[in-house]
Design goal:
about 270 residues; eight-stranded mixed β-sheet; about 15% strand
Length: about 270
């Protein structure tokens, strides 16, 4: 790889991207990182052999900047970068809810911006990263973003108008599954199982179900029907889920997540 890429605000997701790029063949010499705390920067240097720099140095020297700071910190970061960032550098934003126009208005005219919503399974190379182009981003810029995020999972291009919905579904999605596993584990304990055994049963069932969804090509309704025999245990459980409005609650929850993503875009914090 000949281009230099800088990851700004290298937390867990930023570090996952960094390690994924190195597994994909990027040399440490071509990777720059910034971190708020000096000890964190030195930790990254020791672990990966990359060069910690300041945000200003990253703006001056990197060909691509991946911004992984919190949405509420993005405006301050852009104010710091803007005086030093040439318009031919690619800016990739990983901030939930912030549109590419927010960056384009604060950076040099014509700066290409790509918006990406990834999720925490990037830590185990199973991320779902959703990619959208800003006004000045080209096919080359999108392909470069796919190259980077493809190192930690699957990528999908969507129009930016769909990003808030994707944030609700996949950006926040892992938390819903963790919540479900937590609830099912509690149910297993109530039914008389030790916590560790209940956990193992549920996690392996979740992995198996996910692989079937991915690889079988079957609709989830069909897969569910294959488990649901007449007058059996599963249909009784499904009936209780329907009686308690679980489907409606999930739809309402995802709508709430989408709406919050829109609020973040408008600058609302609370």
């Amino acid at each position: 790889m000949s281009q230099k890429v800088a990851v700004l605000g290298t937390g867990k997701i930023g570090e996952a991207l960094l390690s994924g790029m190195m597994r994909a063949g990027w040399a440490p010499a071509d990777l720059l990182v910034t971190a708020r705390r000096p000890e964190r920067a030195e930790e990254l240097r020791a672990r990966y052999g990359v060069n910690p720099v300041t945000n200003t140095e990253a703006a001056k020297t990197a060909d691509t900047l991946i911004l992984t700071v919190k949405p509420q910190d993005m405006g301050t970061l852009l104010d710091e970068l803007a005086p030093h960032l040439p318009a031919d550098r690619l800016v990739i934003s990983g901030a939930a809810g912030i549109p590419t126009s927010f960056f384009e208005e604060r950076l040099a005219p014509g700066t290409p911006v790509v918006r990406v919503m990834t999720n925490t399974p990037a830590l185990v190379d199973e991320a779902m990263s959703v990619i959208s182009a800003g006004s000045h981003a080209t096919e080359r810029h999108l392909a470069h973003a796919e190259e980077i995020f493809g190192g930690v999972g699957k990528t999908l291009r969507v129009p930016e108008s769909q990003q808030d919905a994707c944030t609700a579904l996949s950006g926040s999605g892992p938390a819903y599954f963790f919540y479900l596993v937590e609830a099912m584990t509690d149910a297993g304990i109530l039914l008389g199982l030790p916590r560790d055994k209940a956990h193992d049963l549920i996690v392996q069932s979740a992995i198996g179900a996910a692989v079937m969804l991915r690889d079988s090509g079957e609709h989830p309704v069909k897969l569910r029907e294959n488990v649901t025999s007449p007058a059996g245990t599963t249909i009784n459980a499904i009936r209780e889920l329907e009686n308690h409005g679980v489907r409606a609650a999930l739809i309402a929850a995802l709508e709430a997540a989408r709406d919050r993503s829109r609020e973040l875009a408008s600058g609302k914090k609370d």
